[in-house]
TrEMBL record:
Record protein name field: Histidinol dehydrogenase
Gene3D superfamilies (alphabetical): 1.20.5.1300, Nitrogenase molybdenum iron protein domain (3.40.50.1980)
Cofactor: Zn(2+)
Pfam families referenced in this protein's UniProt entry, alphabetically: Histidinol_dh
Main enzyme class: oxidoreductase
EC number: 1.1.1.23
InterPro entries cross-referenced by the UniProt entry: Ald_DH/histidinol_DH (IPR016161), Histidinol_DH_CS (IPR001692), Histidinol_DH_monofunct (IPR022695), Hstdl_DH (IPR012131)
Alphabetized UniProt keyword annotations: Metal-binding, Oxidoreductase, Zinc
Family assignment from sequence similarity: Belongs to the histidinol dehydrogenase family.
PROSITE patterns: HISOL_DEHYDROGENASE (PS00611)
GO molecular function: histidinol dehydrogenase activity
Length: 426
């Protein structure tokens, strides 16, 4: 854990380093481009080879997809079914609010102009499965696709060494409306969905979070497909004044640490006393957690706590860092909230655990990480809609448009353009 305050000698250089840009390292970039090239060249054969190399599973080319029988046989506890239904209910309601609706109006010349929104025909969602079966992520991606009315939803998720996928995850995928399940993970799964293979039909757009290989594959395949955003290893930044409850703050930091070593955990406050209390609370709570040893490692490698001069400084650092989740606890919430501009999601006050947003609240937990929050927003239902603009003129509006069109045609030296409009006014 790195603990520092504004009086420390290395404070300024540390703060400077928190101003991030989401860019991959060279080794990840090179490995991923090699994987993409192999999938493009060898298709299913490459998928089988990488599943063996990275996931330690022996699959045949015929076994890349989950069969309908396997899916039909999935059974989960009633309590699981209830939890998944509760989450999907909130997700669907939230998603429907975010869908865009067709509209039209008349422009100055009287032409009808408008926008039409239709669901994509076929999308791919990546559901991480490396470290934990992210059942909630299945809902937080495919659930939005279904709410938008996408008819074909291909999900990709890595299977275990025995070739099976966690039954709760399968149940969630089915509940969220997924129509095909590819048992492949990593960059190779993204490549297969984007480029297609003999057995995988390519998709129009790819959604969903993953580790750095998955995120880099989406970045490199942009163009072959479109992507939602760059949602990588999860992270949190907690900003609190002295009104923050140290036990709650510690609990949220620990919950984040559970996500894994690639993620970053930050705590910024203008109260030095609060840092001391949070550190003590972490030690106390850690004792009772099942993944304590693992969490301890993350706290050591990837956690910082900082005493800043003021809330203004805290907010400025937060905007530079562009964290996936910002927890904001401040007596002057109304004053500062509009100024937190680059966060993927903001959790307000002492009583808003990020975990509720992870699993249940409604907004997708698929959020930009690694500093990409500066340029991307979290996953929304309207990202599953393809937008088309529509223009319709009649004799009156075409006549009214002619003067301006002819002037542009003259300036740009495109006389056929002018002629195509004039001919309709003769
Ligand atoms: N930002 C968000 O919205 C959000 C939401 C949920 C999860 N996440 C993040 O997603 C990540 C999931 O990561 P994960 O690893 O558990 O699952 P994952 O499914 O993303 O990655 C596992 C796959 O990576 C590939 N792989 C593993 N090691 C490799 C290597 N050395 N080289 C090349 N490929 C390799 C394997 O094929 C494996 O199937 C976590 O960091 C989590 O925080 C983010
Ligand atoms: Zn979480």
């Amino acid at each position: 854990m790195k603990i520092l305050g504004y009086r420390d000698a290395d404070y300024d250089s540390f703060v400077k380093r928190l101003n991030r840009r989401a860019l991959p390292t060279h080794d990840v970039r090179d490995l991923v481009s090699e994987i993409i090239a192999a999938v493009a060249r060898q298709g299913d054969k490459a998928l089988v080879a990488y599943a063996k190399r990275f996931d330690n599973v022996l699959l045949k080319e015929k076994q890349l997809f989950l069969t309908p029988d396997e899916l039909a046989a999935v059974k989960v506890a009633p309590s699981t079914r209830k939890a998944i239904a509760a989450s999907l209910k909130n997700i669907t309601a939230f998603a429907k609010k975010g869908l865009r609706k067709d509209w039209s109006m008349r422009n100055t010349e009287g032409a009808i102009v408008g926008e039409r929104f239709q669901p994509f025909d076929r999308v791919g969602v990546y559901v991480p499965g490396g470290k934990a079966p992210l059942v909630s992520t299945a809902l937080m991606t495919a659930g939005f696709a279904r709410a938008a009315g996408v008819p074909e939803i291909l999900a990709a998720t890595p299977c275990g060494p025995d070739g099976t996928v966690n039954p709760e995850l399968l149940y969630a995928l089915k509940a969220a409306g997924v129509t095909e399940i590819l048992k492949i993970g990593g960059a190779q799964a993204i490549a297969a969905m984007a480029l297609g293979t003999k057995t995988v039909r390519p998709v129009d757009r790819i959604f969903g979070p993953g580790n750095r290989f998955v995120v880099e594959a989406k970045r490199q395949l942009f163009g072959a497909v479109s992507i939602d955003l760059l949602p990588g290893p999860s992270e949190i930044l907690i900003i609190s004044d002295k009104t923050g409850n140290p036990d709650y703050i510690a609990a949220d930091l620990l919950a984040q640490a559970e996500h894994g070593g690639d993620s970053v955990i930050g705590f910024i406050t203008d109260s030095k006393a609060l840092i001391g209390k949070v550190v003590k609370a972490i030690e106390r709570q850690l004792e009772t957690l099942s993944r304590a040893r693992y969490i301890r490692e993350v706290l050591k490698q990837a956690t910082f706590m900082m005493q800043v001069r003021s809330m203004a400084e805290a907010v400025a650092i937060s905007n530079d860092f562009a964290a996936e989740h910002v927890s904001f606890i401040c007596a002057e919430e109304k004053k500062w909230l509009p100024q937190i501009r680059t966060a993927g999601a903001i959790y307000l006050g002492n009583d808003s655990p990020v975990a509720v947003g992870d699993f249940l609240a409604g907004p997708s937990h698929t959020l930009p990480t690694g500093g990409s929050g500066r340029s991307f927003s979290g996953l929304r239902a309207d990202q599953f809609q393809r937008r088309t603009s529509i223009v319709k003129l009649d004799k009156r509006s075409v006549r009214k448009s002619l003067g301006v069109v002819e002037e542009f045609a003259r300036i740009e030296g495109l006389d056929a353009h002018g002629r195509s409009t004039a001919i309709r006014c003769e």
